[in-house]
Amino acid sequence: MKESELSTEPIGQNLIKLISNLCFSVFVFSVLIFTVIAITYQPPDPWLESAPALTKLFTQTENATFKNDDSILKTGEDVVLVAAPEVPPVLAINPITETVIEKSEEKILNLNLKSDCEDLKFVNCSDPRVLVTVERFNLKTFKFIVFLEYQTPVSGSKLDECDVAWRFRNKKEKSWRKYRDFRRFKFGIGENCTYNVVHAGGWHSGINARRPRSRPNTTRSSGNLRLAPPVGDEEVNDTIPTLGSEMNFRKGKYLYYARGGDYCKGMNHYLWSFLCGLGEAMYLNRTFVMDLSVCLSATYNPSNRDEEGKDFRFYFDFEHLKEVASVVEESEFLKGWKKWNRGRKRKVPVKKVTTYKVTPMQLKKDKSTIIWRQFDAPEPENYWYRVCEGQAAKYIQRPWHALWKSKRLMNIVTEISGQMDWDFDAVHVVRGEKAQNKELWPHLDADTSPDALLTKLKELIQPWRNLYIATNEPFYNYFDKLRSQYKVHLLDDYKELWSNKSEWYNETTLLNDGKPVEFDGYMRVAVDTEVLYRAKTRVETFYNLTKDCKDGINTC
């Protein structure tokens, strides 16, 4: 028995040692693998992970700089945001639906209006039955439009015509802004002696129902430049608010970003940084100090040079921004600051922050009137959006809902879409530098050639449809081959909408102290983007026309 125990004991001990050594080896090997991964792995920036969907829409990052994708420019009205605010009660209008129309008809029945066919032979445009007929016709004809309010119809050019104006918005636009159309309708007599629409005119055809123009002899002048009186969009109010009294300034709390390395960068970069600052101001419950002077990157200028002194209001809706965020224009802010400090021993309390590494969370309880972030470090340390990196991304939400495109640009979008009666398809054709770069996009040039486009579009879009082409291709006649199958529309077909006789030209010139404003590359892409989104069928370059990846080879 003892011999048996002595013979088996060393075997058990050896087995235990063997298992222990094996486990230890596995542990060491696992640690080694983990160490290698930890050294070589490059984790994604947490600020990108905080809003991945919006990041894909607006930006891409690489080593704290941006790869500009300037072919599509999205802003807050283009996306549905979970945290987007509700429509302000003052702006809320119940849309005109079939139910609303039926209630109007009930009221008309109670009026006991005569329905003798002889009485309807000559159309009385103020007859409420005329308006009901137009409302029902529009509701059935324009499926993508939300009709908000109508004006009483007025007489057209003939006895059986009426001009009708209304306000509306497009269902594909996520903003609550209203637009205006006025059309001429020809009426006939239907069953039971009721009105019906025999013919409806096109966009802005009902000229008698348009809003009154200024008197033609009241031209404005600015130096040697004489401006035609603009019709104007009475809903645009992008005036700069004042701070009021010195005491009002002292009661406020401000976040002031000094100009950093973002200036004159691409517009996507600018937006990403601007909304970081605005988001921090909202987190700190402070008023954000805004520099309305924008430097437009050379990317968007025909001269291929950066252009300073552009007004924020040329591109974005300042009125909407004022409604949803607390902002103050920089010169007004500096004026109030200077007034308060003049002749006073007790100056305005200021907290200077010289590095983005001081987080918003650290400033949350600061009681200074002004938090002044300064960005004097070399690039990329002096980019505003660095403030929202790291842990700050968990606390700072970029307020995309606050940033809409300029209402003046959106009026051009509405004009173009309206002239096509909201019944059009669109193709987004990306060419330019990407088509020339065969290393990153080897097939793009061939896949977007006129012959290839025509072959592909025949599979996707019915012939003789209105086809809007949103593109960065500079040659207007490049798409002529498509005209054999489609009614082709390009942005340059609508140059009159920003010509020196246009509403846009007059209003932006007045906004720019009497100096004409160029309809630049950013404005072109912004308008192209919005018309593209209103199409019934939308064909994309990198999803429908080519197998190349949007961001270059091997990035799909």
UniProtKB/TrEMBL annotation:
Pfam families: DUF7074, DUF7075. The keyword Transmembrane helix applies. Keywords: Membrane, Transmembrane, Transmembrane helix. Residues 248-541 form the DUF7075 domain. Residues 122-205 form the DUF7074 domain. One of its GO terms (cellular component) is Golgi apparatus. The chain crosses the membrane at residues 21-41. InterPro entries: DUF7074, DUF7075. Residues 209-228 are annotated as: Disordered. This is O-fucosyltransferase family protein. It comes from Gossypium anomalum.
